Recover the amino acids of this structure.
């Protein structure tokens, strides 16, 4: 997710150059490589050790990160549209479209199933809640934004219409639920103070649904502006249904951007009050800040506004530098082998110990 959003930011930088384009292509290729390698590793892990999947899906924290899979794939889909479609032609459009349908289905699954697991299986307290609850919920919001990007490149107006409508539904499944979680999370912060320093970086995660949700509305509104009149969709007396969605989408995006500023302040103020060690949670910096930056640059493009364009450029450079820092730290820690940690394995070890005790006890009784 973090690597993919950096490639997108550099490709769509308001003040761009050919050298930045090729850097974005290199990072895009790196993102595809990382995604495929870790997907293969994950498949092998759960195929060889299926018992790990069971304890992972029931773990109250680790299971939430399943939502990062469709979000990481969405960054690849977007760059296929930006880079591969102009270079390879129509077949690349339908490659992106097919991947998007798969991504949308997985996003819906994570948004529906994992929050239900919190209600039905996990035993949680308000003091132990983190913003990681947003991860499976943000997935359909990211898919909605990606749907707007893909729809803009589809040649068939009817296919565009289907994609836009489904994307609005995806937006509706994710954003309202994310707002509900933000209310609960705000209550948790006010009643139980800041999260532990090991997960303090999670305070940036609320920027994800606000930034990506705003961008999705602007992108879908832009596509509806040109598609609805062609497909005779929502034929109203004024004949301006697409324009209404475009303007309302921009207005809502601006409101969500302003709400994002509040959470950006909370996040920056929180990390200044805590000294936290480097861990995998540092990747929580990059994607939320990245999608908030995407919303910023899109506002600058649609207005148009030099203020938002300059601010988006500054944010893009900061996110890129932050990505370099986090990526460098990740490589260093991975070499020494003290970075990767699977908390669900403790539950598996506990079950194995209970099984051994039960077996020994049964053996004594039988003797």
């Amino acid at each position: 997710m973090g690597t993919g959003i950096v490639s997108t930011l550099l490709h769509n930088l308001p003040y761009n150059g050919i050298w930045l384009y090729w850097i974005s292509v290199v990072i895009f290729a790196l993102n595809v490589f990382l995604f495929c390698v870790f997907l293969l590793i994950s498949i092998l892990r759960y195929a060889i050790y299926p018992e790990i999947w069971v304890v992972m899906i029931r773990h109250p924290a680790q299971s939430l990160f399943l939502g990062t899979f469709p979000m990481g794939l969405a960054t690849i889909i977007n760059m296929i549209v930006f880079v591969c479609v102009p270079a390879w032609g129509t077949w690349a459009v339908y490659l992106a479209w097919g991947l998007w349908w798969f991504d949308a289905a997985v996003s819906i699954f994570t948004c529906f199933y994992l929050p239900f697991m919190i209600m039905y299986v996990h035993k949680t307290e308000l003091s132990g809640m983190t913003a990681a609850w947003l991860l499976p919920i943000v997935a359909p919001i990211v898919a909605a934004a990606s749907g707007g990007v893909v729809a803009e490149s589809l040649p068939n107006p009817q296919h565009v219409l289907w994609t836009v409508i489904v994307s609005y539904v995806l937006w509706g499944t994710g954003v309202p639920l994310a707002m509900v979680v933000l209310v609960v999370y705000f209550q948790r912060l006010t009643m139980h103070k800041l999260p532990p320093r090991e997960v303090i970086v999670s305070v940036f995660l609320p920027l994800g649904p606000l930034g990506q949700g705003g961008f999705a509305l602007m992108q879908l509104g832009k596509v509806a502006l040109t598609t609805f009149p062609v497909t005779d969709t929502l034929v109203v007396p004024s004949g301006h249904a697409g324009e209404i969605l475009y303007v309302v989408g921009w207005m809502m995006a601006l409101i969500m951007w302003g709400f994002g500023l509040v959470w950006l302040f909370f996040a920056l103020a929180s990390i200044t009050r805590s000294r936290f060690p480097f861990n995998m949670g540092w990747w929580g910096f990059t994607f939320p800040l990245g999608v908030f930056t995407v919303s910023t640059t899109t506002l600058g493009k649609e207005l148009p506004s030099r203020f938002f364009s300059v601010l988006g450029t500054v944010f893009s450079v900061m996110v890129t530098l932050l990505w370099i820092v986090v990526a460098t730290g990740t490589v260093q820690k991975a070499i020494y082998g003290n970075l990767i940690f699977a908390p669900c394995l403790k539950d598996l070890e506990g079950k194995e110990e209970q099984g051994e005790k039960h077996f020994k006890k049964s053996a004594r009784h039988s003797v």
